[in-house]
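Action item from last meeting closed. Structure (136 res):
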């Protein structure tokens, strides 16, 4: 349910944005209409984790305090289908560290793409560009 609320909403927003961009592009092509300051396409860069967050959460469930593990088990959060909920509730050090490391690794693996998106292009060696690449 939480995924439906958060993730699906983000996907719908991205899809809507892409449709508006396509509409703007087709209107400009068909009519020769020049861009105006009011109507500009918005560039997007979608970055998703390379690992499933619910699987990571499930692997760190043992870090929960005993009372929380008991409640999580009773509510089915520790079941394979409940790990998605666990990913929203788990704030233990190992889980957070895993997510931070994953974000850093995923960001660095797409470093050039991120730098291009942010307008840094070939400025890979500048300290400012490094900051931008790891702020994912």
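Sequence:
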């Amino acid at each position: 349910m939480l995924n439906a609320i958060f993730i699906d909403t983000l996907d719908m927003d991205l899809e809507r944005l892409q449709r508006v961009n396509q509409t703007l592009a087709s209107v400009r092509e068909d009519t020769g209409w020049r861009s105006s300051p009011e109507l500009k396409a918005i560039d997007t860069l979608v970055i998703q984790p390379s690992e499933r967050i619910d699987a990571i959460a499930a692997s760190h469930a043992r870090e929960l305090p005993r009372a929380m593990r008991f409640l999580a088990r009773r509510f089915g959060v520790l079941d394979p289908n409940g790990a998605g909920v666990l990913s929203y509730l788990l704030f233990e050090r190992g889980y957070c560290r895993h997510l931070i490391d994953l974000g850093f690794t995923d960001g660095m693996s797409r470093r050039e793409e991120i730098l291009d998106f942010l307008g840094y292009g070939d400025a890979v060696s500048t300290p400012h560009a490094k900051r931008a690449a790891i702020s994912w």
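Note appended to the action item: Residues 128-136 have pLDDT under 50 and may be disordered.
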